[in-house]
Write a structure and sequence with these properties.
single chain; alpha+beta; Aminopeptidase; five-stranded mixed sheet; three-stranded antiparallel sheet
Length: 144
């Protein structure tokens, strides 16, 4: 089941401390008027996976560009970190989050990652239907 975390007071925000990709990004950035957290909750009520998304009007090449708040209407959902607690939950979460965004934020037309340059990230995204949009100095943008 998809769960969207919109409030800093949400009890699921403690999951952010498990972020293995971008632990340095503060909670206040992850939940704001231009970003949110999605969690996949398994049938047993336990978290299966978490993804953080920022809405931008550009596709960032690095965390510095990601941190720049949108000045115009965002058109891109940037999936900048994802981690999983159970096999397969990450794929289900990416798909469910995209579907939710398409319905609830129709102005968002691009679904892109800001992923580390790792074999694990490459394998995950390519296996789940993404393609390489751009290879940057320290990151890769995969497009869904």
């Amino acid at each position: 089941m998809l769960r969207i975390i919109h409030e800093i007071s949400d009890p699921l925000t403690h999951l952010v401390s498990d972020d293995p990709v971008r632990p340095e990004i503060p909670l206040e950035f992850r939940i704001s008027d231009s970003s949110e957290i999605f969690a996949w909750i398994n049938d047993n009520g336990k978290p299966g996976a978490v993804v953080c998304v920022a809405y931008r009007c550009h596709i960032p090449k690095d965390v510095f560009e990601l941190a720049q708040r949108p000045e115009d209407m965002p058109t891109a959902a940037i999936f900048y970190t994802i981690w999983s607690y159970t096999p397969g939950a990450g794929q289900r979460l990416i798909s469910a989050a995209q579907n939710w965004i398409k319905v609830n934020k129709p102005e968002i037309t691009d679904f892109v990652t800001l992923s580390p340059l790792t074999d694990m990230a490459r394998s995950f995204h390519l296996k789940n239907g993404a393609s390489v949009l751009r290879i940057n100095q320290d990151t890769v943008n995969y497009q869904y």
